[in-house]
Amino acid sequence: MSTAEKWIYQALENRTKALSIALGFRDRSTLEHSDRVQTLASELGQAVGLSECQLSALKISAKFHDIGKIGIPDSILMKPTKLDADDWEVMQRHPAIGEQILCSIELDGAEQAAHIIRHHHEHFDGGGYPDRIAGEDIPIGARIISIVDSYDAMAFTRPYHQGRRHTDIIDLINRESGSKHDPYLLRYFYRMIETSINRIA
């Protein structure tokens, strides 16, 4: 990666940092989750051999993958029980909101990160959202975030669910191979997570 490209991605990260801090004041657990997802996504991206430019875009999109939750009402974002159908419909808007936020930053690299953010809840079989795209039509960065986001979300206790053990999470993720998650990337994830600082007990 050239010095100019490194500067662009650093400037992009700096410009979005304020939004991350704002979301953290509103929902501390989301900020902490995003930090862990960024670390895991970076580790998995390196394991699968992404280029420096791809890794930079991945790190930014992983850090801010949930930034669109700024546009979700507190009554839904902080709800202590499972979301109902109407709540879930609203929650599913956050990837598109996040994309709009990143696209509003007029820097090279923002569009690539925004594209990843938009698609991080797509499923490998086409059953996700917002666009129901499938397979390799989903950006590889989004497929990586989908895996590590799922792992971290299941690892920690939230008002609506108890945190699970590492072995239980791996079992659940393995069941979603080919449906929610990319089987090829999962092979790398299983090896990577065993030595990650964010592996839970």
TrEMBL record:
GO terms for molecular function: phosphoric diester hydrolase activity. InterPro entries: Cyclic_di-GMP/3'3'-cGAMP_PDE (IPR052020), HD/PDEase_dom (IPR003607), HD_GYP_dom (IPR037522). CDD domains: HDc (cd00077). Residues 8-201 form the HD-GYP domain. It holds the Pfam family HD_5. It comes from the Bacteria. PANTHER family: CYCLIC DI-GMP PHOSPHODIESTERASE TM_0186-RELATED, LIPOPROTEIN. This is HD domain-containing protein.
